[in-house]
Amino acid sequence: MTPEEIKIRMRPGEIKFSSSRAGGPGGQNVNKVNTKVELRFNVKKSNSLTQKEKNRIIVLLKNRINSDGELLITSQSERTQLMNKKKAEEKFFKILASALTEKRKRKKTLPTKASQEERLESKKKRSTVKKLRITSGFNEE
To answer: Which end of the chain is more exposed for a tag (fewer CB within 10 A), N or C?
Structure first.
């Protein structure tokens, strides 16, 4: 699932934003303007997601979800509130997309004929190196 697909499915009003004063670089701007943006999305009460998707998100993103069932994402890297809001939104959709994308199971495969021959060849080389050490007298005590 891509972030764009999730963005289309999301109903308006399910994502809430709040802003506060951000720390870090920005000079006097930081002290005057509320540029830090916090995105809140209530996973449990969402109508855009199926129950299966909600459960998957709750399990995979448990460290980002608070006790009220809200997924919290903050952004404070930009100097303006609008840019931080856009960044938080992008981050939110990427995180949801990665959580909802099921990983493909690995198919078991046999080693190729070439890799088998390469492995045997390296073993033969190693064997001859060790045999040469014994016969040349380096290993005498």
So the answer is: C
> Can you say whether residue 27 is alpha, beta or left, with left for phi > 0 and alpha for psi between -120 and 50 degrees?
left
| Residue 128 CA, distance from chain mean position | 47
Q: What is the pTM of this model?
A: 0.68
> Where are the chain's structural domains?
3-100, 111-141
Q: Give the end-to-end CA distance of the chain in Å, rounded to a whole number.
A: 67
CATH topology of domain 3-100: Double Stranded RNA Binding Domain (3.30.160)
List Cα–Cα distances, 29 to 18, 38, 78, 87, 129, in angstroms.
18, 18, 11, 19, 69
